[in-house]
Design brief:
By secondary structure, the chain is an alpha+beta fold. It has a three-stranded antiparallel beta sheet. The chain has four helices and three strands. A hairpin with a 5-residue loop joins strand 2 and strand 3. The protein is elongated, with a radius of gyration of 16 Å. It has a domain of 79 residues: Arc Repressor Mutant, subunit A (Orthogonal Bundle), CATH 1.10.10.
Length: 116
């Protein structure tokens, strides 16, 4: 597994929560938005996304509901729960801390105290 794959795998849950924190989406829409908003960096295949969505739903981070689309087809939409919003806040804070510390190391400066 490449470094890029490892980074993407480690951030999938946070990215899904971030997108669903803005609006409810169906699976394919999540894949499209993730790719679009990241300029293609976070390209996710549906076959990898759906197991993640199901696990997150089992963990209480997401809920789902069936909605009828404009074309009459039914789609399963995923919504973030209150527990999911709390986890998103924790994960976002941890990612900010991680990036700050990584940038300090890459730039040759000292990491900030109390964040290690």
């Amino acid at each position: 597994m490449t470094f890029r794959d490892q980074v993407r795998k480690g951030s999938t849950e946070t990215l899904v929560l971030l997108l669903l924190g803005q609006e409810a989406m169906y699976g394919y829409q999540i894949c499209q938005e993730m790719t679009r908003r990241s300029g293609g960096y976070f390209e996710m295949k549906e076959g990898l996304l759906y197991p993640t969505l199901h696990r997150m739903q089992q963990d209480g981070l997401l809920a789902s509901e069936w909605r009828e689309a404009e074309n009459g087809r039914r789609r399963k939409y995923y919504l973030i729960t209150a527990e999911g919003r709390a986890v998103l806040g924790e994960q976002t804070a941890e990612w900010h801390n991680f990036m700050t510390q990584l940038q300090a190391l890459l730039g040759g400066s000292q990491p900030q105290e109390g964040h290690a």
